[in-house]
């Protein structure tokens, strides 16, 4: 079915042709209008050479766009232009004449909806003038084509050549009959060029053709036979997609049919499609609905990086192999390289295939982000093989990196998939697509006020099932945004009150737990039975208590404070026991499979969360075990770095201040602080300073003698940069009471070391901090316990 759906669908669609083509041209008899040009005056038609010269003198060189620049280069474009605001057309018959020409042009393009013509420029091609091949881009909202009116003149050459998808037409718009005007029109995405004018002057009015009244495209003929064939093909594809596995060579999940014409992002809409594309759309919309398939309009993009080698630069008339993307106003060039160089392309290094910018047939935009696609989903699969890239950029070799070529292919396309496979298609794109889509579904369902049997809820539930089935494994849990993904999923499922999907998420959560999910998990867990949540939490703690005990304590704290355990905190006792026994060394837990995270250090937050959690689940035996371990192991549970800040935080909580464990830790902290407060602290009486240098080299030994000298305040070391840098490093490492500065007077420079009172100032600051901490602890403990004893000295001296 894989080849049948991609090839057969392309074959059927290729037979759907509406009236009209990518271009139209003709000659029509008219009464010539009055043409006045500011700075020149009334122009006689056919154009006289003397007035042709006057128009050229009044005109500007016509530029072209390359990247963000607007350039004038007569090797690319040699012609003259006069802006529309300087051109005045009048005459009794002219409005009706122009309306008739526009109608002929629209009919030739297959557009039957209302169209207006907006005057853009007057171009004057003198002898030798030309414009290399290029594409026009949208210059006004709703613009879809360009109309060229060649005014009568005695000239030759200047043929207009229009190319599109392998077809080419050469149009001769010359003529000197004053009663006849030649016109040509073509879709704006068509490549076209103007060949050199060989004699005389060729005046040309350029109009932008713009759709009005909603930009509705022409109505194609009826294709009942093609519609039935496509619907039958899509039905078989949908049946096979459910019965087979794509990985085993089955049907593709989606089909992508590139359109014939190019469209800007602003013009991408079913109602703005051009002739054959509009005809195909009208058939596909009905056939997809009949076969229960979903149809979208989207932009297909292929971005490649390949190894490359520069092989030269060529420049001849017109640079015929260049595609400039805009004939005016500085738009991007098509290939994007902007330099006409030639390269030999090697192996593909990277390749990214995506579909984005989705549109429904009704004009709405679904909440679907970029989706990846496979080449075998293209219809036909080899569609991009012979296409020229829209952009390409050559990067020369730098350092160890070889030269590379980056190129991008873009094309509007129809995208189809069986409605029953919608969730599989979205889920296969990854969580960066499905998580925002699920959030949107959950929010829309909640706003609707519907029940859980509503279509929106059922769609969200089905998508969640696919997401959980395909959720990344343990290797993804170490990524920076792993917890964000789980949190987003938890919040959406809680919003949907989807207990079945929440239970399924809990089944896989122990294996992908990152630590940042605690708050969202506790909130969502309220929707589930407490025993089921306790089972999941227990598994998480068992696999993570060894490396991340602080995060595990935080999880248990969230669970006992905002989870589903209000009436049954004892359900958390097994998980809390595992955590406490792991912390005290009574239990060694193996990390979960594939876990590679380094153990985290003990922090004050761990101690605070641990004892708050133990109080919350009413586990006195575990509380006593944890307290004894903390007080008996001052190395990991450092008094200054861990216990003092933890006790200060716990003492500020009314529910914790009278806990026996908190009182005992506070007593230990106060004893430690009071002892240090009672130590002698005096400023230095002379210039003798402690020598804590560890290096015994000659320069550091001399510096040590200087530190111990009570008479010397300053010393100068005149030495090279390496020696000065070494001595400064020694001073910083030993935290010596020295200020250092470099004097750049003379050679070599000098390192000036001046003694200070940094040690004393640190001690004084430490005493002030200790006094403040003692005062806070004593204030919190005035209602009982040893914290009510004296505070010791009240000043740092």
UniProtKB/TrEMBL annotation:
Start-end of Gly residues biased regions: 782-791
Region (Disordered) location: 319-343, 775-797
TM regions (residue ranges): none
Signal peptide from the UniProt entry: none
Compositional bias of kind Acidic residues: 325-343
PANTHER family for the chain: FE2OG DIOXYGENASE DOMAIN-CONTAINING PROTEIN, MYND-TYPE DOMAIN-CONTAINING PROTEIN
Protein name stated in the entry: 2OG-Fe(II) oxygenase
């Amino acid at each position: 079915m894989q080849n049948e759906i991609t090839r057969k669908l392309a074959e059927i669609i290729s037979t759907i042709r509406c009236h009209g083509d990518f271009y139209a041209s003709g000659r029509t008899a008219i009464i010539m209008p009055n043409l006045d040009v500011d700075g020149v005056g009334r122009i006689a038609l056919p154009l006289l050479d003397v007035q042709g010269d006057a128009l050229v003198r009044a005109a500007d060189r016509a530029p072209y766009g390359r990247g963000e620049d607007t350039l004038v280069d007569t090797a690319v474009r040699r012609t003259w232009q006069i802006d529309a605001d300087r051109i005045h057309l009048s005459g009794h018959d002219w409005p009706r004449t122009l309306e008739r020409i526009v109608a002929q042009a629209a009919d030739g393009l297959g557009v039957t909806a209302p169209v207006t013509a907006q005057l853009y420029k007057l171009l004057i091609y003198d002898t030798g003038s030309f414009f290399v091949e290029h594409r026009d881009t949208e210059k006004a909202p709703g613009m879809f084509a360009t109309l060229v009116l060649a005014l009568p003149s005695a000239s030759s050459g200047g043929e207009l050549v229009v190319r599109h998808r392998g077809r080419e037409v050469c149009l001769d718009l010359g003529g000197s009959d004053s009663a006849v005007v030649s016109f040509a029109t073509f879709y704006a995405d068509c490549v076209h060029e103007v060949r050199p004018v060989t004699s005389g002057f060729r005046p040309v009015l350029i109009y932008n053709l713009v759709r009005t009244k909603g930009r509705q495209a022409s109505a194609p003929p009826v294709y009942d036979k093609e519609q039935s064939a496509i619907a039958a093909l899509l039905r078989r594809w949908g049946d096979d997609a459910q019965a087979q596995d794509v990985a085993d060579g089955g049907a593709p999940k989606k089909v992508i049919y590139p359109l014939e014409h190019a469209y800007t992002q602003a013009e991408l809409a079913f109602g703005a499609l051009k002739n054959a594309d509009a005809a195909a759309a009208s058939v596909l919309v009905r056939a997809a609905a009949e076969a229960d398939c979903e149809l979208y309009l989207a932009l297909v993009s292929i971005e490649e990086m390949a190894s490359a080698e520069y092989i030269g630069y060529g420049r001849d008339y017109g640079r015929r192999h260049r595609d400039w993307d805009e004939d005016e106003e500085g738009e991007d060039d098509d290939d994007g390289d902007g330099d006409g160089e030639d390269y030999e392309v090697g192996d593909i290094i990277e390749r990214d295939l995506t579909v984005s910018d989705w549109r429904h047939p009704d004009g709405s935009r679904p909440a679907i982000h970029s989706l990846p696609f496979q080449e075998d989903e293209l219809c036909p699969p080899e569609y991009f093989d012979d296409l020229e890239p829209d952009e390409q950029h050559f990067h020369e070799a730098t350092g160890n990196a070889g030269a590379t070529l980056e190129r991008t292919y873009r094309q509007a396309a129809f995208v189809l998939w069986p409605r029953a496979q919608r969730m599989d298609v979205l889920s296969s794109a990854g969580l960066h697509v499905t998580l925002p889509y699920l959030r949107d579904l959950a929010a829309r369902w909640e706003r609707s006020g519907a029940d859980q049997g509503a279509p929106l809820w059922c769609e969200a539930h089905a998508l969640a099932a696919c997401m959980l089935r395909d959720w990344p494994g343990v290797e993804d849990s170490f990524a920076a945004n792993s917890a964000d993904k789980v949190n987003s999923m938890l919040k959406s499922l809680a919003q949907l009150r989807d207990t079945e999907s929440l239970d399924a998420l809990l089944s896989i959560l122990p294996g992908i737990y990152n630590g940042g999910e605690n708050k969202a998990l506790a909130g969502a867990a309220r929707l589930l039975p407490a025993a089921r949540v306790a089972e999941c939490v227990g598994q998480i703690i068992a696999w993570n208590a060894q490396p991340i005990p602080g995060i595990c304590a935080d999880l248990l704290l969230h669970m006992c404070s905002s989870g589903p355990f209000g009436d049954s905190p004892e359900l958390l006792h097994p998980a809390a026991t595992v955590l406490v026994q792991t912390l005290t060394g009574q239990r060694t837990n193996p990390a979960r499979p594939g876990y590679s995270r380094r153990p985290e250090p003990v922090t004050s937050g761990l101690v605070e969360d641990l004892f708050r959690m133990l109080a919350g689940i009413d586990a006195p035996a575990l509380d006593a075990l944890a307290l004894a371990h903390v007080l008996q192991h001052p190395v990991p549970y450092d008094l200054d770095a861990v216990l003092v800040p933890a006790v200060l935080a716990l003492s500020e909580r009314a529910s914790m201040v009278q806990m026996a464990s908190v009182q005992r830790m506070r007593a230990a902290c106060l004893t430690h602080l009071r002892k240090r407060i009672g130590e002698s602290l005096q400023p230095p009486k002379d210039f003798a300073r402690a020598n804590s240098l560890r290096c015994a080299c000659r320069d550091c030994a001399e510096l040590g003698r200087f530190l111990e000298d009570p008479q010397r305040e300053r010393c100068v070391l005149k030495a090279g940069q390496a020696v000065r840098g070494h001595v400064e490093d020694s001073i910083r490492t030993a935290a010596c009471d020295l200020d250092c500065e470099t004097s750049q007077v003379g050679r070599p420079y000098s390192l000036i070391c001046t003694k200070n009172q940094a040690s004393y100032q640190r001690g004084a600051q430490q005493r002030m901090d200790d006094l403040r901490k003692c005062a806070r602890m004593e204030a919190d403990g005035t209602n009982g316990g040893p914290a009510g004893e004296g505070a010791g000295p009240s000043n740092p001296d």
